[in-house]
Amino acid sequence: MYDDLKDKRVVVTGAASGIGLATARRFSKESCRVVILDRDQEALNQAQSEHSNFAGGLRADVSSPDEVEAAFEEIDHIMGGIDILVSNAGISVRKPFADIDYDQWSQVMRVNLDGMYLCSKAAIDRMKTQRSGVILFTASTSGLAANPLYADYSASKAALINLAKTIAVEYAPWLRVNAICPGYVLTPMQKAEYTAEMFAEVNATIPMRRHADPEELAAVFAFLASSEASYITGGTIVADGGESLVTGGLYEPIED
């Protein structure tokens, strides 16, 4: 637990499930005031009903400038500002590059990149009045290397990593910005795309031999938001069980 996080005002996007929900729960346990955002109203209602200690839950599509503006105005009413933004909302569609039409490409970019821009800009507009803040982006190891069947997703995450670095440089020393790059995480989005056979095949290529639990990523976000990480900014933090260390996905464990 991080004592300095107590009473911090935290906004988590894409927070009705998966990494976002686990992260919102973790910050709530750290005695933060947490507002969750998601475009899925049904999932948002369920998350709020199961976690009544959240300060609020707002339906917003992060790819819409008008909806983001309205959401942050409501956040002002609920919490009077923001100290920590976890910009997490994202989508992916598994398709070969040749089958990705422009509508899909645009949708992925609008959510995964434009949404990060819009939310971070709204947060910075508020943080600059207090001259302090933390922004954490959910990027991906797909933004660090080629990932077949995810050309649009990978491109959006690569751009996001550079966006984090640029904002970090422009707004230091009072604002810290980092990009967290998960590998395979057992989220609803991942479960919707993979069969049991695909999960087994992927796990065999990961030195840790498994997907991460969302709570393990939530712990990374909490650390990076805390004063324990006060000298970390512009970073690309990889949490992938060692997967990106293995060339070509070839991995044979050494038995004792």
Task: Trace the largest sheet across and list its strands.
Answer: 3-2-1-4-5-6-7
Helical proportion?
40-55%
Sheet/helix structural class: alpha/beta
Quaternary structure state of the chains depicted = single chain
- Provide the number of structural domains: 1
Explain briefly what this protein structure is.
This protein has 256 residues and is an alpha/beta fold. The protein has helices at residues 18-29, 41-50, 65-79, 102-130, 151-171, 188-193, 196-203, 214-225; strands spanning 9-13, 33-38, 56-59, 84-87, 133-138, 175-182, 236-239.
List the helices and strands and how they pair.
Blueprint: E1 9-13, H1 18-29, E2 33-38, H2 41-50, E3 56-59, H3 65-79, E4 84-87, H4 102-130, E5 133-138, H5 151-171, E6 175-182, H6 188-193, H7 196-203, H8 214-225, E7 236-239
Give a quick set of tags describing it.
single chain, 256 residues, alpha/beta, 7-stranded parallel beta sheet
Task: Explain how this protein is built.
The chain has 256 residues and is of the alpha/beta class. The protein has one domain (3-185, 215-233): 3-Layer(aba) Sandwich (Rossmann fold), CATH 3.40.50.720. 44% of the residues lie in helices and 14% in strands. It has a 7-stranded parallel β-sheet, with helices on both faces. Helix 1 packs across helix 8 (214-225). It is globular and about 45 Å long.
